[in-house]
Amino acid sequence: MKPFDCHTHIYDNAFGKDINEMLARAKKALSGIIVVGEDPESNRKVIALCKKHPGFLFPGLAIHPDKVHTLTDAQIDTEINFIREQKNLVCIGECGLDYLWAKKSGDYENTKLRQQETFRKFIALADELNLPLNIHSRRADAVVIHTLKELRPKKAVLHGFSGTVAEAKEMFSFGYKIVIGTNLFFSKETKSYVESLPLEAFVLETDSPVQAPVRGQRNEPANVRLVVKKIAGIKNISEEEVIAATNKTVRHVFNVI
Ligand SMILES: [Zn+2]
Q1: CATH of the domain at 156
Q2: Distance of alpha carbon 157 from alpha carbon 174, whole angstroms
């Protein structure tokens, strides 16, 4: 059995030269990969790349919170209409809130509000299209939780989540899953979720090309294997058990593999 990577950006220029070698390693190691877009330009790259590898690369489209301040409301609505017309999407993402980035944008309060409005539009789109959400949450966990509790989208996975263990448990009780990525090698919060929540709460990711197990290196999807090994070690169970449980959740949430 092979694990599944739920969240990557492998259209990134970091893979420009050796994308075929990287995908060959990924096909040996994994059962599939979700590729999520961030803005109009990358959303089109996601579609083109996934078309070349049907049954292995699966597309998700949205606007990343870090990109919201670069687009007008009209551009965001036009992109939502474009996404609505696409076939074969397995999720709406990457969308969500990033208040660290909102601060960097130079217009903190307004960018936070626009991120919230955009996130709500994508939650509505996910429910309209009956798709799960691939959610980015950074320094905004309380607001993400509040928004999910208010709008109650049917299915969602939380990427980059760094709330308390109690908050992670609460999200799992609502049916939402916590994404455990290669950040398990350096994030205390991620490790605490693995220690405290059942395997059924998790799906796996790399967020390639970023979040490499060794900071500063390029990450790649095959590294999901390292996450499997690390979870198995923390929980003192076999790697097969980790893969079986997380793949079952992938099938339930994303309806793939
Ligand atoms: Zn991402």
Answers
A1: 3.20.20.140
A2: 11
